[in-house]
């Protein structure tokens, strides 16, 4: 968990999650399933990104990767 590779993988994962939640919330708004404007979508994405980082820290399988069963190559 204290390696550059861990935080690089965790950062990439949190950015992906942020984008997925933002696009998902705005897409569901467009379909009329939920009502979410841009500021709400951004807030949902930020919350999901924070949870992703916390999950990576909590489930780190050791010094290598951000998940229980994954490892990160050191480049």
Oligomeric description of these chains: single chain
Overall morphology:
elongated
| Helicity range | 55-70%
DSSP strand count: 0
Unreliable spans: none
Radius of gyration: 15 Å
Compute the number of helices. Answer: 2
Alpha-beta content class: mainly alpha
Provide mean pLDDT, rounded.
85
Distance separating the two termini = 16 Å
Please trace the helix and strand order, writing H or E for each element: HH
Q: Estimate the strand proportion.
A: under 5%
* Largest β-sheet summary: none
Describe the protein's architecture and organization.
The chain is mostly helical and 75 residues long. 65% of the residues lie in helices and 0% in strands. Helix 1 (4-31) runs antiparallel to helix 2 (38-58). The radius of gyration is 15 Å and the shape is elongated. The relative contact order is 0.23.
Question: Can you describe this structure in just a few lines?
Answer:
The protein has 75 residues and is mainly alpha-helical. 65% of the residues lie in helices and 0% in strands.
Outline the secondary-structure elements:
Elements: H1 4-31, H2 38-58
Helix pairs in contact: 1-2
What are the defining features of this structure?
single chain; 75 residues; mainly alpha
């Amino acid at each position: 968990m204290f390696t550059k590779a861990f935080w690089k993988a965790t950062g990439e994962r949190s950015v992906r999650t942020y984008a997925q939640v933002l696009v998902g919330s705005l897409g569901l708004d467009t379909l009329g399933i939920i009502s979410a404007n841009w500021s709400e979508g951004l807030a949902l994405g930020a919350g999901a990104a924070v949870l992703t980082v916390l999950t990576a820290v909590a489930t780190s399988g050791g010094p290598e990767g951000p998940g229980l069963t994954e490892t990160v190559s050191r480049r």
